[in-house]
């Protein structure tokens, strides 16, 4: 209990600490992988950034919760709501957690940003990193939660087909992490293009093999793809790999690493194969590449519907489509990036005090509206 109170006090800041006991705002817990501020990228993007903004607004107190201790009652704090991301609540503790929530009036909210439900999506996740128990945890949580938050409309439709209601809260970025002007890449040597992603994107990478085979820009400079993450299989590699330093798996440090190397690249790419798992994904890479200062080129899939209106470039699966889009991205990138960044800063930022539909939907899911 003392640890929880200490965490809350640290997150809340001086203004909320000065409230009297009778004025205390609701206490919202969150369950994500990681601890001590070090979490997977999805947790930073979808949960901890929003929780920090919520605490800064004074509308709620927030604290990370140990799921096992809260489920078995070792942590005695009463929570008004608890948001759980993906599979962060162990399957073996979920029944006890739902029983306690029912007894104490705690609202359990599930947060998912990928398709964990269709057969083809579950098979893809199992190949990448999810064992059966992790997948079962997500399924059990989402089907029993008081509210479910997802990242895209196609993902909401996937859940609706399963008989599950959900609200859409689009991904946003924390501007303080990025805040980068359009980059000016080196004028000499090969022109490099960045592709970053998690281990679930190995199949998407293959879309680009023929695109970069012998590719040159309009001035005859060779164009090379440089990969950060995406796959661990570099056998017969036709791309270059930029290795992450120790500690850069922590999202803020990962972003700092990208910013330090941003002038290596002339564009950022986001290929997606034609499958239902990808169709439920968000346009996060458009947001990140844009805030990194790079023009965006992505697959013409539902995930990136609408980005062309904000400076992004879309390509079909044909090699000529990708090459044409990349060459377009190399021309006048400054104007294209500034247009994208203006959109992101105006509509896709996570920060205290913003009043927009996604933020209102998120607070309503937590029972705060």
Main attributes of the structure:
369 residues, Rossmann fold, disordered N terminus, alpha/beta, 42% helix, 6-stranded parallel β-sheet, 12 strands, 2 domains
Question: In short, what is this structure?
Answer:
With 369 residues, this protein is an alpha/beta fold. The chain contains 17 helices and 12 strands.
Shape descriptor: globular
Listing every helix as H and every strand as E from the N terminus to the C terminus, the arrangement reads HHEHEHEHEHHEHEHEHHEEHEHHEEHHH
Which strand order spans the largest sheet, edge to edge or round the barrel?
2-1-3-4-5-6
- Helical content, roughly? 40-55%
Structural class: alpha/beta
The CATH architecture of the largest domain can be named as 3-Layer(aba) Sandwich
What is the number of helical segments per DSSP (H or I, 4+ residues)? Answer: 17
- Rg estimate, integer Å: 21 Å
What is the count of structural domains?
2
Residue stretches low in confidence (pLDDT < 50, at least 5 long) are 1-20
Q: Provide the CATH topology of the largest domain.
A: Rossmann fold
Arithmetic mean pLDDT: 89
Oligomer class: single chain
Topology, number of strands? 12
What kind of sheet is the major sheet?
A: 6 strands, parallel
Rounded to the nearest angstrom, the distance between the terminal CA atoms is 27 Å
Strand percentage lies at: 5-15%
């Amino acid at each position: 209990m003392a640890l929880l109170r200490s965490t809350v006090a640290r997150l809340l800041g001086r203004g909320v600490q000065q409230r009297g006991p009778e004025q205390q705002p609701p206490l919202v817990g969150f369950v994500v992988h990681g601890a001590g501020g070090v979490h997977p990228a999805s947790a930073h993007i979808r949960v901890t950034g929003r929780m920090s903004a919520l605490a800064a607004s004074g509308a709620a107190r927030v604290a990370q919760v140990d799921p096992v201790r809260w489920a078995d009652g070792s942590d005695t704090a009463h929570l008004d709501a608890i948001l759980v991301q993906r599979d962060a609540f162990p399957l073996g503790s979920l029944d006890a957690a739902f029983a306690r929530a029912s007894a104490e009036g705690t609202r359990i909210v599930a947060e998912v940003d990928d398709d964990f439900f269709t057969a083809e999506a579950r098979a893809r996740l199992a190949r990448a990193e999810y064992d059966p128990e992790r997948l079962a945890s997500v399924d059990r949580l989402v089907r029993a939660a008081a509210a479910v938050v997802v990242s895209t409309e196609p993902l909401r439709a996937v859940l609706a087909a399963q008989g599950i209601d959900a609200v859409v809260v689009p991904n946003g970025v924390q501007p303080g992490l990025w805040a980068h002007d359009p980059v000016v890449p080196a004028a000499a040597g090969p022109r490099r293009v960045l592709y970053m992603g998690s281990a679930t994107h190995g199949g998407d990478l293959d879309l680009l093999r023929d695109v970069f085979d012998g590719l040159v820009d309009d001035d005859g400079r060779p164009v090379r793809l440089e990969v950060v993450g995406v796959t661990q299989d570099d056998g017969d590699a036709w791309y270059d790999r930029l290795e992450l330093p120790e500690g850069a798996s922590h999202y803020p440090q990962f972003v700092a690493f990208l910013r330090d190397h941003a002038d290596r690249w002339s564009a950022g790419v986001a290929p997606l194969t034609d499958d239902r798992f990808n169709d439920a994904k968000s346009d996060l890479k458009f947001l990140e590449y844009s805030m990194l200062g790079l023009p965006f080129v992505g697959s013409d899939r539902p995930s990136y519907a609408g980005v062309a209106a904000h400076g992004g470039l879309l390509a079909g699966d044909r090699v000529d489509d990708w090459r044409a889009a990349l060459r377009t991205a190399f021309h006048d990138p400054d104007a294209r990036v500034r247009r994208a960044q203006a959109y992101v800063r105006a509509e896709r930022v996570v920060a205290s005090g913003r009043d927009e539909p996604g933020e209102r939907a998120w607070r309503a899911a937590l029972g705060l509206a």
